[in-house]
Amino acid sequence: MRRSNEIEESRLGDELRSFEKDALRLQEIVDKIDDYIRSNKEREMEQIESRLISNAGMIKEDEAKIERLKPEIDLLKKQVDDSERQKTKIQNNLDLIKLERRVNELTDEVAKMVDKRGLMGAEEAEMRCSKAKAKYNEYKENKTRTEGRKQGLDEQKRMLRRKLKEPEYHDVEERHRVKMIEHETTQIVVHDLDKYYDALDKALLRYHGMKINDINKIIRELWTLTYKGEDITNIQITSDQDSGGRATRSYNYRIVMSKGNTQMDMRGRCSAGQRVLASIVIRLALAETFCLNCGVMALDEPTTNLDYENKRGLAIALAQIIASRAAQSNFQLVVITHDEDFVSMMKQELSSQTGFNMPERYYQVSREQGHDGRFYSKIHAIDWDEL
Fold first, then answer.
1. Residue 248 has pLDDT above 70, yes or no
2. Beta carbons within 8 Å of 122's beta carbon, 6+ residues apart
């Protein structure tokens, strides 16, 4: 706030200095006008105007005199027969000629005076004087307005100074300095967070790629082990990243199957059994990849829509998983199925594995009618040897 007031005060000071320069130029013009007024040109012009007025009066008097002489001339004409009258007439004529000459002389003198006045630049001086007076009046009005604005600005300046002394602006410079430090620190933190975010984002992208590769590796091994058909060599998960900002990044996952070097989406191109087997294989791969020391793995009707060969491949894969997890104390595989052939396959494949103890029994759930006529589910523990 104080900085903005200082800027405003500086701007008002510049305007004030500009107005003072205008006032100085106005004062110079006024001094020139005063010099012109004090010069003798104005007095000479007044003398010439006085002489013109005097000559005009003389001309009027002569004209009046001529008018007065006309009756006398008429009278002399009547006395033409009289020599004295003739003499008087001649004398009057001579006087008239003299008067006419005098009139011509005065007319020439008046013309010379007018020419002399024009050479002296009186009209131009009057015009310049009128313009100078008009400009003087204009500058005077501007000066009055400027003084009024200056008074308003001075009052505003005093008000701002009083405002700066209020408690609200106490230690404003120190508070501004602290806030600027906080602002700069926040900008540095934001910049560092952007770098950390970019580094984390790149690390997540690398981690995502590594995990996808690990998942596809396990999927490939399990698929080769379980699927016995020849139309699909391998399946894998692919991901496409949606275009968008960092906060809205997402991935579209899809399952593709390959035969040789040709890949295509499994959706709509595979049988129900292939879909079931692919689902089980992918879930097993996800569990192996992301579930470190996974304790429980449950499969509900895993052989649905599978033919005999694929059932056997699934049994082999599950047997290998059980054998590899035998050392894990909390590992337990729960298979829920109605397929007794698949259970027999599991027994056969588990018996062929080494390095772990065979499960002692499996559990069979049946539906039996109780004494009250209702049906209840009953769980029987059955030894493997009875299968």
1. no
2. 41, 45
